[in-house]
Amino acid sequence: MHIDSCIKEIISQSRLFNRMSNDFLLQDFQQGEQKEQVRRPAVRRRSKKPVWREYAEVILISLAAALLLRLLVVSAYRVDSASMEDSLLEGDYIFVNKLAYSFGNPQTGDVAIFKSPLNPTKDYIKRIMALPGQTVEVVDKIVYVDNQMAMIIPNTKNTDPKILPMQLSLRDNFGPIQVPSDEYFVLGDNRDNSQDSRFWGFLPQENIKGKALFIYWSWVPDPKSPEWKFPYVISSIEMLYYFMTNFPSHTRWERLFTAL
Fold first, then answer.
1. φ, ψ of residue 185 in degrees (nearest 5)
2. Residue in 108, 91, 125 with CA at minimum distance from that of residue 208
3. Partners of residue 251 on adjacent β-strands
4. How much is the pTM?
5. Domains detected in the chain
6. SS3 184
7. How far is CA 215 from the centre of its chain?
8. Which of 87, 126, 194, 197 is catalytic?
9. Cα–Cα distances in Å, from 34 out to 39, 212, 226?
10. CA distance 25 to 32
């Protein structure tokens, strides 16, 4: 009996000790958790931007990207002469790669934009037909480069059946002459109606501004269209109305995105 009482007492004390140990562990865990919560920094919720501000940021970024592209990479030009018909028509709008010749030289057949050697304030557009060091000659309207017939451009045309002798004009008979270094021989595709290297000489490479890529828009010229004049508010309204009412009929849809 005495032994049983001792055993029961030992078991009872062991249970009490275990309970106390668990209580101490729970208190330590809770205290540690409280300390961790105290040390954990409060997370601030980021305030949501207003919708107008998001749109404004997108517009500003887009305008900045467009401006950089316009200044450094591409330019838009409007064709305002018939010298490149039928490859380019008056009223065609083209994109020009300004970096095309920063990493390479112009090639035969390229359509190039350049400053006029006679008047650097004006830009011309012609096709490169002969490179530096090559010998070019025009015989009865046919172009020869290094005694071989030059490449045939699909939309090149001659509208005047008459052939003019060299004594009267250099239009139909020219050369032979070697193209100087760092210069190019350029022609308009409308051969009988183009002022080009036959008349004002070779094109210096430093005058070239870029390579024409493609036609992004084409509009039939209309001499009756409203003009931009003072007072500009009235002109703006007239031009907007004219554009909206003539947009379908005056757009040359078949020319859009034509590669050059």
1. -105, 120
2. 125
3. 219
4. 0.72
5. 74-259 (2.10.109.10)
6. strand
7. 12
8. 126
9. 9, 71, 79
10. 10
The token pair that represents 109 in the structure block:
């057949």
Instruction: Provide the 3-class DSSP secondary structure of residue 237.
Output: helix
3-state secondary structure of 127: strand
Determine if residue 11 is left, alpha or beta; phi over 0 gives left, psi from -120 to 50 gives alpha, anything else beta: alpha
Question: Please, are residues 166 and 96 in contact by the beta-carbon 8 Å criterion?
Answer: no
Catalytic annotation present for 126 = yes
Please name which of 148, 164, 161, 155 lies closest in space to residue 187, comparing C-alpha atoms: 155
> pLDDT (tens digit, 9 = 90+) per residue, 115-172?
999 999 999 999 999 999 999 999 999 999 999 999 999 999 999 999 999 999 999 9
Chain CA centroid to CA 20, Å: 79
Q: How far apart are CA 61 and CA 134, in angstroms?
A: 47
- Tokens 């084409």 sit on residue: 218
Residue 94 to residue 121: CA distance in whole angstroms = 19
Distance CA 156, CA 83 (A): 10
Residues 150-160 have pLDDT tens digits of 999 999 999 99
Catalytic residue among 35, 47, 75, 83: 83
